[in-house]
Known about the structure:
Blueprint: H1 2-6, H2 11-17, E1 21-24, H3 30-41, E2 47-50, E3 64-68, E4 71-74, E5 79-82, H4 85-92, E6 105-109, H5 112-123, H6 132-146, H7 152-160, H8 163-170
Parallel strand pairs: 1-2, 3-6
Antiparallel strand pairs: 4-5
Amino acid sequence: MELICGGVRETNLKLTLAFGIGIHHAGLTERDRKVVEELFVNQKIQILVATSTLAWGVNFPAHLVVVKGTEYFDGKTRRYVDFPITDVLQMMGRAGRPQFDNKGVAMILLHDVKKHFYKKFLYEPFPVESNLLEVLADHLNAEVVAGTIGSKQDAMDYITWTYFFRRLVMNPRLV
């Protein structure tokens, strides 16, 4: 480990690596980031503190993921903005990857005012609706041009095979 730490440029990273803790953020050199990634994947460090950018693009399975906050500061608007829910799910999804671990734990630390939203999102089914109605004319025209639809009956048959149709039968208020 000392040999690896000797090649690291970032002073704080050197100090934390000596204790088995890695740091990963955009301010590190690419070489330092690669060292941290390799050490974590090979389980040479047990703890990795990282920014949200690590959630996307790199396969970093972990047993425990702690998401500290669900907001980030947006410099353009000069205010705190919520992470998209997909980003939070992506971060949580690092915990307990089946090919690496038999279970995982994800913990979100957040303000009390957001607690209800995240509990509801995590424990209740999320409604999924079709947005086909907004672009249905474009799809039907494309199928007419492609020769798939040649009559009104063909158009009706086409629509009955869509998720939009299935949701429409269950919830006629969609139209």
